[in-house]
Write a structure and sequence with these properties.
This protein has 311 residues and is an alpha/beta fold. The chain has two domains: 9-128 and 291-303, Aspartate/ornithine carbamoyltransferase (Rossmann fold, 3-Layer(aba) Sandwich), CATH 3.40.50.1370; 131-288, Rossmann fold, CATH 3.40.50.1370. 43% of the residues lie in helices and 14% in strands. The structure holds phosphoric acid mono(formamide)ester and norvaline. Phosphoric acid mono(formamide)ester (CP) binds next to helix 2. Phosphoric acid mono(formamide)ester binds at residues 50-53, 123, 131, 263-264.
């Protein structure tokens, strides 16, 4: 029996999130080669490009004693050359875990249902849970705690935003998401997160006013206006999102010590200005670095032997 999958941050208990973050902090503080995953292999099945996710999973496996095999879009032909359940059952004979980057979230759910090994969502159109964990790790490093931290997300109610909304419910963030009409987060995601927030002290506010998300925030966050797979909407999105850019004027509404996050890659001059992303309040490269440590914690949780796993 596999220990579990990581398909959405919404599926984790608040305790699991806190354990993963503590483990990630420990792994980061004592970064060295470990052998918890000796002899284990992770398949990286990617339908879309990636820098951070691909490299950080590969290095994470190496540093935990195992290794990764990358399978790009042209190699597997997920759902095209071969049905997803067949890919999942074949890979389960060879590897100990699968991290998949897909277009449709339903595809990764199908993969998890039919694989005998843990499946990790390396980004789907619905959620980017590994990013969300690295974002929480970055906030926790900066503020020493998560509950009550005021996070303003300005932009598309997309996979990255959904991970943050779920995260807010799990750990008690006060999250305000500012998106144009028609681009707001999925109502069911917000509803689930608000139910959890009732016991964790979190708050999730949706608005169409970017200044409402920025005002007095401890941290501001944005993501690209056009996600992978939406390129045909680029022109319309450039016009619809034009006032949803983190620039110095918006940042000045936040607390003076506020930090700025972005999951990267960034489109400078669109969702964020060059001076802000390169400025002293930006922590985007620390945030990108944290992908490694957060994902190591996930790999140990899902793939280390039960008597050895530290999460
Ligand atoms: N943030 C993120 O997931 O980056 P990549 O698309 O490069 O993996
Ligand atoms: N929302 C973006 C995130 C990229 C890491 C996308 O899906 O393309």
């Amino acid at each position: 029996m596999k220990r579990g999958d990581l398909l959405s941050l919404g599926d984790l208990t608040p305790d699991r999130v806190h354990h993963l973050l503590s483990c990630a902090l420990e792994l980061k503080a004592n970064r060295r080669r470990l052998s918890y995953l000796a002899g284990k292999t992770l398949a990286l099945v990617f339908q879309k490009p990636s820098l951070r996710t691909r490299v950080s999973f590969d290095v994470a496996m190496e540093e935990l004693g195992g290794h990764a095999i990358y399978l790009g879009p042209d190699e597997v032909g997920l759902g095209k050359r071969e049905p997803i359940p067949d890919v999942a059952r074949v890979l389960s004979q060879y590897v100990d875990g699968v991290a998949a980057r897909v277009f449709r979230h339903g595809d990764i759910q199908e993969m998890a249902r039919t694989a005998a090994v843990p499946v990790i969502n390396a980004l789907s159109d619905f959620c980017h849970p590994c990013q969300g964990l690295a974002d929480l790790l970055t906030l926790r490093e900066h503020f020493g705690q998560l509950d009550g931290i005021r996070l303003g997300y300005i932009g598309d109610g997309n996979n990255v935003a959904h991970a943050l909304v779920f995260a807010a419910g799990k750990v008690g963030l006060h999250l305000t998401v500012a998106s144009p009409h028609g681009y707001q987060c999925d109502a069911a995601v917000v509803e689930q997160a608000r139910r959890e927030a009732a016991s964790t002290g979190g708050q999730i506010v949706l608005t169409s006013d970017p200044t409402e998300a920025a005002r007095d925030a401890d941290a501001l966050y944005t993501d690209v206006w056009t996600s992978m797979g939406q390129e045909h909407e680029t022109a319309r999105r450039r016009s619809d999102f034009v006032s949803y850019r983190i620039d110095q004027r918006l940042l000045d509404l936040a607390r003076p010590e506020a930090i700025v996050l972005h999951d990267l890659p960034a489109h400078r001059g669109e969702e964020i200005t060059d001076d802000v992303i390169e400025g002293p309040q930006s922590v985007v490269f620390q945030q990108a670095g944290n992908r490694l440590h957060a994902q190591k914690a996930v790999l140990l949780w899902l793939m280390a032997e039960a008597d050895e796993h530290v999460v």
